[in-house]
Task: inverse folding
C-alpha cells in the first residue's frame, strides 16, 4: 500500500534527486516546487501510501485527489546542466514506521533510475522571529561537504542542530546505507508551524540555482508561494484538527446514558 | 485480516456502487440503508476487518455479531433502472492505514463485479444549528460533475470544504486511481458527533431517487432512522468510552504500591 | 510473531473450548484457572505474541517469563463428562488489531483440534458496589441460548449490555464466522479495574460445574484467588504505569537546553 | 524493514552475547560500551529498523547517520577468556510490537553465530536519590542463578522488582523460548529519566569483568561516560520533544479559519 504509479520511463544520465516535502517553514516544498515549475520539469510518477492521512483534497471545480508525492524529471539542456529528478508532495508520513517504509520505496525507485546523489531541502525552526537566514548543511559523508563548501553553507550543523527529523534527514541516512551520496540543506526560519517562510525558501533556491548552473526567473516566486501555501495550510490544518478532535473525544464525559465497561 | 465473505455471486450489468457508512450526521448510513430496505436489495457479501473496533454487538435475544460492512445488490427491474450495489455498515476503520487497507479490499472486490462508477454519501458538519440543507458535491473528474449538474448539487465544494475525511472521500480518491468515476454527496448538518440527522439524510435520499429513477415509499423513513440511530449510537458510544478509559488510565496516580520503572 | 508452541498433541473427542482471560473483575481468569487446577488439566500449548506488552514477569527465584496464554486439556473420565480445552493467560492484546490477530491464530489452532463449541467467561462492570450477582449470557446463535437456558443465565444481555469488548466477545464473533457455536458468560461486578472479584468468579464457576457435570472441591478457591490476583495485579499495574509514564513525558516542558524542531 | 548489515563473518567458539542498550540510567549502554572500547572489540554488523525513531543524528563535521544497534565481537585471547559478542546501540524500539520484532531478528542472527548464552544489562529506577548500589539479577532458568551466585548479585528480584520492561527483559524471555540461557543484571539508580548513572554502570562493569576474567583499565570510564551521555541525551531529548509537540498540537484551538469536520 505504498505504490508508485509510473506515467513515463525517462532515460536519464546520472540524475541527481532533489527532494522538497512539506515541513518546517515549508522551505523545501516551496524551493523545489518553484524549480519544477520554472524548469518546466515533467511529471513521470506519483506515489500514494496508506501512511498518509486518510482524506482527499478538493481542487478547483471540486475534483478530489488522494494525498500524493510526485516525481518530475528535467533533462539538462545547456552546458553545465545535469539531469535531475525532483520529488515534491502534499505531505510526509503520519507515523514513524511509515516514514521508513515510504522512503524505502522511493529509494528503490530512485536507484533503478540511476540515482547516486541526493539533495534534500528542509527547514530549521530557530524559535527566534529575527533569525539569520544562512543555510545549514548536513552530509552523508565528509567528501560531500568538501564538494559543496564553496556555496556558503554552514556545516557546523553537528553542533548547532544535532539531528534532523523526518524525510529530509531520513533520506540522507537511508541513502547512505545504499551508497548514495547525500546533502541536506536546512533553511533557518522562526518555526511557527503553519507559516510558510518564502524568504528562507528563496535563500535555499539561490544556492540550488548556483550549484547546478540553472537559469530561472525569480520574479514569480511570491505568487507561487501564495498558491502553494494555501494548499499546504489546508492539509496541515486538517491534520491538526483531527488530532484535536481525538483529544476532545477522550475528554468527553460518558454523559447521557451511563456506559458500562465489559471485558 | 480484512476479509470479504461472499454469500452469493450476482451477475450484474455495469453496476453502480453506492456507499453509505456511519459518519457526520450518519447521513450516508441512513440514506443508503433506507434504499436497501425499500428496494429489498439482497445481501451477497460481508466484510470484517482487524481495523474495526474489537468488540461484538448484541442484537435482540443476545445474539452477538462482529462489526461488519455489508454489500447488497439490486437488479434494475423497471425501465430506466440500473443494477446497483450498496455498501453499508456498522463502522469505519479505527486507524489511518486501516482506512486505506479496507477500501483497497472493497475496491478490488467491486472491480471484479464490473463496477466503473461509484457514489459515496457523507455529511458535512457546518457547526451551525440552522444550516442550509442543500447537498454539496465532489467528483473524481470534471465530466462527472457535468453528468450530475441538473440535480441541484452545489459543486463549489472546493472552496467551501477543501477536503473530505474518511471513507466517503477516500473511496473517490482510490477509485480515481483505478479509473473508476466517482461522485461524493455531502449532506449539510450541524455536526454534533453522535446526532443522526434524518432531515439531511432525506435530502440526500431525494436526490438519489431522482438520479436513478427509483420509486420508494418515504413514509417509513422516520421509523427506520430511529432503529438505525439506536445501533449506531451504541457503537459510537463505546468507541468514545474506550478512548476515555484510556485517557483516565493515563492520569491514574501510581497509587497503592509504588511501582518502579525498569529498563 | 503470534506463535503457538505445541508441547503435546492430545487426541480429543469433540472438545469444548473454555476461555478465561484477565479482564473486568478477572472473573474468567479466576473461574477457568481454578477449573484447570482442580481438574489437573494438562498443559499442551503456549502462545506468545508481539501484541502483548513487551516485558517479562519474574516468578519465584527470579526466573523470567514472557507474557503468555496457555492451553490445557482434560479428557472426560466419568460418565457425563466431555473432553475440554482450557485457554487461560496472563493478558489480552494491547491493540485492536492485535485482538483480531491473536484470536484468529487461536481459532485456527482450535479448529484443528476439532473444536465446534466455545464458552468464554468475562465480567460486566455495573458501576454499583452492591450489584446483583447473576450471570448474563450472550450467544452466537439462538439455538445455543435454548441449550443453556436451564442454568439461570440472564439472556437479556442485548438490552442490558449491548456489546462485549475484548477477547470474551470477539471470540464469540470470530467463532461464529467459522461456524463454531459460542456462549459468553459475564459475571456482574462493581468494576473498579484492578480488583479481582472472587464472589462473581464463584458464581460463574458454579454454573460451569453444573453444565459439564464436573466434581471439584471449591474449598481452595479463596487461596487460589489470592495467588492469581497477585500476579494479575502485577501485569495490570505495569501496563497502567507505562501509559502514565508516556502521558507525563508528553507534558514535560522542553526544559534545560531549548530543543529546536527540524523538518 | 528490520535489517542487519553484516560487515564481517567472524568465526567464534560458543560466544556469549552481552547486551547494553539505552534505558534507565543508561547503565547497560555505558557498561557494555566501555567494554567494547577497552577490549577493542571489532564491529561486524549493524542493525536498522523502521521501529526506531525516524531521524538522523549528526556527528562531528555534520555527517548524518540513521539510528542503529551495533554488534561487535571479541575473541578470547588469554587463558580463561571466552569469545564474546557485544550488542550496543543508540536506542530501543518505539512501540511494543517493534520490541518483539527487533529482538526476534537479533536472536535469529545470534543463533546462527552459535550463541547459547546471553547476558543483558539494564537499570532499575528506585525513585530514591540515595539508593543501594548492588546489582539485582533475573534469570531464564534456576541453573543460571546457581552459576552466577558467587558474584554478589541479589537474586530476590522476583520479590523486589516483579517485571523487567524493554529489551533487557524481553531478550531473556525470547531467548528462553529458543533454549538460550539468560541472565539480566539490573543496576540500581535513582531513575530520573535523562540522567546517566556512571556509578551504577561501574558496579555492573566490575561484576562483568570478574565474571569473564577480563583485564581492562577503568581509568577512562568517566571521560567515556561524558561522551556517551551527550549522544544519548540528544536522542532521548528529541523523542520527548516529539511527544510533547504532538500533545501541544492536540490542544491547539482551531483558531484562525474555523475548520469544519467532514465524514
Result:
Amino acid at each position: 500500500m505504498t505504490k508508485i504509479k509510473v506515467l513515463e520511463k525517462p532515460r536519464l544520465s546520472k540524475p541527481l534527486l532533489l527532494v522538497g516535502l512539506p515541513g518546517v517553514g515549508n522551505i523545501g516544498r516551496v524551493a523545489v516546487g518553484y524549480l519544477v515549475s520554472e524548469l518546466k520539469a515533467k511529471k513521470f510518477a506519483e506515489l500514494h501510501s496508506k501512511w498518509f492521512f486518510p482524506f482527499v483534497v478538493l481542487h478547483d471545480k471540486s475534483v478530489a485527489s488522494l494525498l500524493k508525492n510526485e516525481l518530475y524529471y528535467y533533462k539538462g539542456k545547456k552546458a553545465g546542466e545535469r539531469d535531475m529528478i525532483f520529488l515534491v508532495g502534499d505531505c510526509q508520513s503520519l507515523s514513524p514506521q511509515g516514514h521508513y517504509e515510504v522512503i524505502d520505496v522511493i529509494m528503490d525507485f530512485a536507484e533503478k533510475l540511476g540515482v547516486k546523489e541526493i539533495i534534500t531541502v528542509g527547514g530549521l525552526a530557530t524559535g527566534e522571529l529575527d533569525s539569520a537566514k544562512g543555510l545549514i548543511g548536513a552530509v552523508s559523508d565528509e567528501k560531500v561537504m568538501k564538494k559543496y563548501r564553496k556555496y556558503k553553507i554552514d556545516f557546523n550543523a553537528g553542533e548547532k542542530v544535532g539531528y534532523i527529523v523526518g524525510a529530509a534527514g531520513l533520506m540522507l541516512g537511508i541513502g547512505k546505507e545504499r551508497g548514495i551520496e547525500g546533502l541536506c540543506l536546512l533553511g533557518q526560519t522562526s518555526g511557527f508551524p503553519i507559516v510558510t517562510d518564502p524568504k528562507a525558501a528563496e535563500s535555499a533556491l539561490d544556492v540550488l540555482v548556483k550549484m547546478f548552473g540553472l537559469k530561472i526567473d525569480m520574479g514569480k516566486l511570491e505568487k507561487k508561494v501564495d498558491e502553494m501555501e494555501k494548499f499546504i495550510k489546508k492539509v496541515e490544518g486538517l491534520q491538526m484538527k483531527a488530532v484535536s478532535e481525538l483529544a476532545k473525544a477522550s475528554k468527553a464525559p460518558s454523559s447521557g446514558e451511563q456506559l458500562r465497561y465489559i471485558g
